[in-house]
Amino acid sequence: MNKERSKTYIALNEKSLLFYKNYNNEFSYVNCPFCSNKTSKDCYEIDNYKVVQCNSCLSYFINPRPAPDLVDIYFKEYYQDPFCELRSNERETYDFKKRYIGQANSICGYIKSFLPEAKKLSILDIGCSCGYTLQCIKEVIKDVECELIGIDLHIPKTDNTTDVRLIETSIENYLQASDGQKFDVILVIGVLEAMFDCCVFMKCVKKMLTKNGLIYITTPNINSIPMILNPNKFYSIRAHSLNPPYGVNAFNPTNMTIFARKYGLKIEKLSTPGKLDLEILRKCKIGDNTANEKLINNFVNIISKCSDKESELLQKLINKLLISSHMEVILRNSG
Ligand SMILES: [Zn+2]
Question: Residue 1: its pLDDT value, please?
């Protein structure tokens, strides 16, 4: 991580603490975001926010949490997309292209394999930020006519021009104004972990999805090897599911299955395709006092000595076991 980026993370973390101090009296309680069970037990705290565990499906989530009106205040007054400004500088660099074009390539690949007959497609990106993902999809998908729309609560201003349609609105307001418009593909990239009420959100998504339409989801995996070994360390890099007030729902392959079933959606694909787990773990610097810290340090020592070939094999194993840092899920509206 470069210095400029680290500074942005630290500033964001300070703002998150300030937001808690100013508004925690107004936070609201929710049922389990994954199975809707009403009871949970307190587990630990992250920056004063309470992490609880559902008594039924054993998932972790932040409760209480800021409701949408407070989230709106957070996004307008406390939040700044840590990547957006940097992205405008990095847009032409290899890393930028690798990340966005890479993702667009895999999304387009899935569209081709799961909707092979499609000649015309409408795609909605929920939480589109500056619209880069849609822009890259437009560049990648050539032989299919596409209508591309992005919505977000807050669309950051950048110098980059984009010719995809971006609308600053919530999903509920968009659904109300959209007059029954349906989409073949709905992108939910790095959004579910931040939803105040997953149930309201998913009901809106389902209403906007065509029959047989696809939902493409990415979200951090709380059961990933970096997070299991050292959860607090990864909180700070915003790759953690529980990163309040932004990240409040901790998904994993098990509760994602419960979640999909609850909304009558078929899982077409569930994977953890990350490539950086060993790299993340090798950068892990912690104490050597507790039994857990000793275990982590021993493990980090072992993987630091692995050859490239051994590392590659180990990463493949991590992917196969569904314990890489992020999940990629494709759900289909089959009902
Ligand atoms: Zn639950």
Answer: 47
Q: How far is the CA of 56 from the centre of ligand 1 (A)?
A: 5
Domain ranges of the chain: 3-332
| Strand stretches in 242-304, DSSP E | 266-271
The neighbourhood of ligand 1, an ion, using CB within 5 A, equals 32, 34-35, 37, 54, 56-57, 59
Give the global pTM.
0.89
- Measured in angstroms, how far is the CA atom of residue 53 from the centroid of ligand 1? 8
Question: What's phi and psi for 237, nearest 5 deg?
Answer: -95, 15
Which pLDDT value is given to residue 46? 85
CATH 3.90.180.10 is the classification of domain 3-332: no
CB-based contacts of 163: which residues, under 8 Å, 6+ apart? 135, 138
Residue 143: strand, helix, or coil: coil
In the reported structure, the alpha carbon of residue 250 is separated from the centroid of ligand 1 by a whole-number distance in angstroms of: 11
According to DSSP, the residues that pair with 247 across neighbouring strands are: 243
Ligand 1 center to 40 CA (angstroms): 8
Token pair for 285: 């610097």
